[in-house]
Amino acid sequence: MIEIETLFHFKKPVPERLRAYGFHPTEGRFLWETPVFENQFLLQVIVKETGEVDYTVIDPITQEEYILIKSESAQGNFVTELRRCCEQKLAEIASICFVTDEFQAEQTRRIVGYIRERYAVQPEYLWEGSADSAALRHKTTLKWFGVLMTIDSRKLDPQRQGSVDILVVKTRPERLNEYIDQPGCYPAYHMNKKHWLTLVLDGTLPDQEIEERIQESFALTEAGGKPAKVQK
């Protein structure tokens, strides 16, 4: 799959650059298309006013969308090479037509700074090719007390839009319902939902509350045992 949220994470479009690249404004969005894969397909890229980016690959013969490119189950050499070709184009657009929106990442940077100062722990990027996922773990036992990720926010709430940074921390099962009733707190993402909690790092939760959840998670994971595992 093309991780489009990662390619455009914390980036915002510059209309002048989009126009210079060849995008055409239409109905409140910018549209661009180009032949790809030796003219076998047509790549269409849409940039919405909100900054969200989407793409479609069209079969020029049938004029129908080639849906396999967005299917996780499609893993053959042909579709893999087509994805690679389209991803290169999307990465070029992200580099040329977008600028980094540092403001959106502000709380994440503060929380990472807090973890470094209090626990002398650096985020560890354990998954090859996933610069948007990092583990936080004890130096001695190597047990995880948190996981930082960038995900599509719709995976937490269908009403949300765009990508968002999250921090997954361990908590006491008896307090889980109390926490997830609060705005900015969700059931654990890719972790045991009975013991872990997702905190959204978009300013919804105050830094102090996030720091308290980190302290709790650190204490709960401090003694012995095997490191937690997350699905990637």
Descriptive terms for the model:
elongated; 6 helices; 5-stranded antiparallel beta sheet; alpha+beta; 232 residues; single chain
Structure characterization notes:
- 29% of the residues lie in helices and 28% in strands.
- It is of the alpha+beta class.
- The strands form three sheets. The chain has a five-stranded antiparallel sheet. A five-stranded antiparallel sheet has the order 8-9-10-12-11.
- A hairpin with a 4-residue loop joins strand 5 (53-59) and strand 6 (64-65).
- The radius of gyration is 20 Å and the shape is elongated.
* Beta-strand percentage range: 25-35%
Structural class: alpha+beta
What's the number of helices? 6
Strand order across the biggest sheet?
A: 2-3-4-5-6
Got a strand count?
Answer: 12
What's the SSE pattern?
HEHEEEEEHEHEEEHEEH
Return residue spans where pLDDT drops below 50 for at least 5 consecutive residues.
none
Distance between the termini: 13 Å
The Rg value, from CA coordinates, equals: 20 Å
**Shape assignment:** elongated
Major beta-sheet overview: 5 strands, antiparallel
Give the proportion of residues in helices. Answer: 25-40%
Overall pLDDT level: 87
In short:
The protein has 232 residues and is of the alpha+beta class.
Which helices and strands, and how do they pair?
Elements (H helix, E strand, L loop, with lengths): L3 H4 L3 E3 L1 H7 L2 E3 L2 E8 L4 E8 L4 E7 L4 E2 L11 H21 E3 L5 H14 L13 E5 L6 E9 L10 E8 L2 H8 L4 E3 L8 E5 L6 H14 L12
Antiparallel strand pairs: 1-7, 2-3, 3-4, 4-5, 5-6, 8-9, 9-10, 10-12, 11-12
Helix pairs in contact: 4-6
